[in-house]
Write a structure and sequence with these properties.
InterPro entries: PurE_ClassI (IPR033747), PurE_dom (IPR000031), PurE_prokaryotes (IPR024694). The chain has one domain: Rossmann fold (3-Layer(aba) Sandwich). The protein contains 6 helices and 5 strands; from the N terminus they run βαβαβαβαβαα. Helix 1 runs parallel beside helix 5, helix 2 crosses helix 3 and helix 5 crosses helix 6. The protein binds 5-O-phosphono-beta-D-ribofuranose.
């Protein structure tokens, strides 16, 4: 079986980010969105970042999800080199609990947007959902899968805080 060409590129600054960023990949998997995952560091592999970001649109990618921690330049630098929408996930850092990542990613100068999500796992999940929602604008089958996912989430919320409570 041939795998569909990836539509979403998930990049991250380090293998240490995978524990967070795998939630974006798992969300896309659940929704049947073809994607790829790569380690691309703004600081340690700048040439790899240039190649990846400049080539992304030409390879057929539609959205980039970029996760990084600390001085998290990866999403902003990727956004500077591709016209594709870039969703940034601040990875929780040890020293500052991800506040450094969040501020590095959110505070872009006007003209180079990065859609910044929450710190950590929630942000990675939501980046996957947001990427799927963007693609669903022109993919009715995916839109239906996303609707079903949201309906199942709603269905799964109990009305009471514990089983034994009225
Ligand atoms: C960033 O530095 C990465 O995105 C990662 O969150 C952080 C720490 O990287 P490692 O030292 O764990 O490789 O570039």
């Amino acid at each position: 079986m041939t795998r569909a060409a990836p539509l979403v590129g998930i990049i991250m600054g380090s293998r240490s980010d995978w524990e967070t960023m795998r939630h974006a990949a798992e969300t896309l998997e659940r929704l049947g969105v073809p994607h790829e995952t790569r380690v691309v560091s703004a600081h340690r592999t700048p040439a790899r970042l240039v190649d990846y970001a400049e080539g992304a649109r030409g390879r057929g990618l539609k959205v980039i999800i970029a996760g990084a921690g600390g001085a998290a330049h990866l999403p902003g630098m990727a956004a500077a080199m591709t016209p594709l929408p870039v969703l940034g996930v601040p990875v929780e850092s040890h020293a500052l609990k991800g506040m450094d990542s969040l501020l590095s990613i959110a505070q872009m100068p006007g003209g180079v947007p990065v859609g910044t999500l929450a710190i950590g796992r929630a942000g990675a999940i939501n980046a996957g959902l947001l990427a799927a929602a963007i693609l669903a604008l022109s993919d009715p089958a995916l839109a239906a899968r996303l609707d079903a996912w949201r309906a199942a989430q709603t269905e799964g919320v109990p009305e009471t805080p514990a089983d034994n409570r009225a």
